[in-house]
């Protein structure tokens, strides 16, 4: 392999195994959405599928955390999520407030009890 | 009484409005935290700065990028990497299918939808689903392109920052950055779920997802989405028919 193609190889990989396998779903979505309008029953169902999928991702990130987040005890992660939600409802339904409360509980509880 | 729709005199004004909305929303900061992690990860695995920046623009999906960087960097088989990235991307399909009908008008050309399609990711989807219905229909595409551009630029700055900050962050700080994603998405999905069907889908997804993951079911996220979403939809239909 000459020097130029060796330099370009990582970029080719990025397109072949990163961009294409991910982008295909967006393009399929574009094709599938043709002729659908927002009130159609199938869009209500698809929206529910998208919401449940995202919920599964959220729950998995919290309970089976990858990487460094896994070093924080599970009970602290769950407590932080519950506090964040409570903070959101208690403080003017502000997402910022909820996120900050959740983060403070996560970091505070880890510093106090987590080691 | 419904609020009057927000008007913009030109598409560019709507685009700028979208960028502004993106930067004012919590996700610009959540993405910032997430992509600091992704930039740092790419540095750890020896990718170039240009490569990881391109991956943010082209892939534009946090989980897919984490898989791509760690699997390629760890020397996994290419077909394995492609499949893992592909599986993580399935969730984008229902997002695109539920968002585009809100953006379309009878005069919309298919190619005008290419950019919002590419911009679709969890953050952009959640904010667009909330704000786009409040915008005049003919300006929704430009507005959502603005949201997407605002988020990608936030992610790009963070990718570069993370690349240079790599290995200098304390452990607890890294954990706090990683926690930004689940906490902010959970709260914002809870906010967006106004109808019963969406609330049910959220609760079912939260309950079924960990159960399937705990049982080591293959494609747990996919099955949770289809199963939980369908159950929520059926419950919604049963309730409608009883009225």
Provide an overview of this structure.
The complex is a heterodimer of chains A (115) and B (243). With 115 residues, chain A is an all-alpha fold. Helix content of chain A is 77%, strand content 0%. The longest helix of chain A has 30 residues, at 3-32. Chain B has 243 residues and is mainly α. Chain B contains 12 helices and no strands. In chain B, helix 2 packs parallel to helix 4 (62-73) and helix 8 packs antiparallel against helix 9 (140-165). The model of chain B has no long low-confidence stretch (mean pLDDT 91). Chains A and B meet through helix 1, helix 2, helix 3 and helix 4 of A and helix 3, helix 4, helix 5, helix 6 and helix 7 of B.
Category by helix and strand content of chain B: mainly alpha
User: What would the principal axes of the Cα set say about the shape of chain A?
Assistant: flat
Count helical runs of chain B: 12
Count of alpha/pi helices of chain A = 4
Rg on CA atoms of chain A, Å: 21 Å
Structural shape of chain B:
globular
How many domain units of chain B?
Answer: 2
The ordered H/E elements of chain B are: HHHHHHHHHHHH
List segments of chain A where confidence is low: pLDDT < 50 over at least 5 consecutive residues: none
Could you say which structural class the secondary elements and strand pairing of chain A correspond to? Answer: mainly alpha
Most extensive interface: pair and counts? A-B, 73 and 94 residues
Helix proportion of chain B: over 70%
Radius of gyration of chain B, CA atoms, in whole angstroms: 19 Å
């Amino acid at each position: 392999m000459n020097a130029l193609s060796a330099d370009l190889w990582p970029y080719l990989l990025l397109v072949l195994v990163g961009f294409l396998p991910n982008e295909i779903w967006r393009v399929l979505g574009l094709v599938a959405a043709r002729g659908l309008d927002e009130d159609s029953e199938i869009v209500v169902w698809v929206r529910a599928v998208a919401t449940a999928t995202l919920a599964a991702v959220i729950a998995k990130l919290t309970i089976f955390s990858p990487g460094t987040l896994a070093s924080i005890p599970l009970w602290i992660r769950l407590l932080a999520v519950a506090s964040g939600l409570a903070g959101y409802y208690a403080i003017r339904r502000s997402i910022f407030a909820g996120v900050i409360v959740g983060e403070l509980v996560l970091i505070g509880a880890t510093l106090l009890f987590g080691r | 009484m419904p609020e009057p729709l927000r008007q913009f005199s030109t598409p560019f004004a709507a685009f700028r409005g979208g960028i502004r909305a993106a930067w004012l929303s919590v996700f610009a900061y959540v993405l910032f935290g997430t992509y600091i992690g992704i930039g740092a990860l790419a540095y750890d695995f020896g990718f170039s700065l240009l490569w990881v920046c391109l991956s943010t623009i082209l892939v534009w999906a946090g989980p897919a990028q984490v898989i791509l960087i760690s699997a390629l960097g760890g020397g996994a088989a290419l077909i394995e990497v492609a499949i893992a990235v592909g599986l993580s991307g399935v969730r984008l399909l229902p997002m695109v299918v539920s968002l585009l009908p809100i953006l379309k008008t009878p005069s919309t050309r298919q190619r005008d939808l290419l950019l919002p399609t590419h911009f679709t990711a969890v953050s952009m989807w959640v904010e667009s689903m909330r704000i786009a219905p409040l915008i005049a229909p003919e300006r929704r595409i430009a507005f959502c392109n603005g949201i997407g551009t605002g988020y990608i630029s936030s992610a790009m700055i963070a990718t570069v920052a993370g690349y240079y900050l790599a290995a200098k962050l304390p452990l607890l700080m890294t954990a706090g950055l990683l926690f930004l994603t689940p906490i902010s998405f959970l709260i914002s999905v809870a906010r967006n779920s106004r109808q019963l069907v969406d609330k049910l889908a959220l609760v079912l997804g939260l309950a079924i997802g960990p159960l399937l993951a705990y049982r080591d079911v293959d494609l747990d996220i996919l099955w949770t989405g289809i199963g939980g979403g369908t159950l929520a939809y059926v419950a919604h239909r049963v309730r409608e028919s009883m009225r």
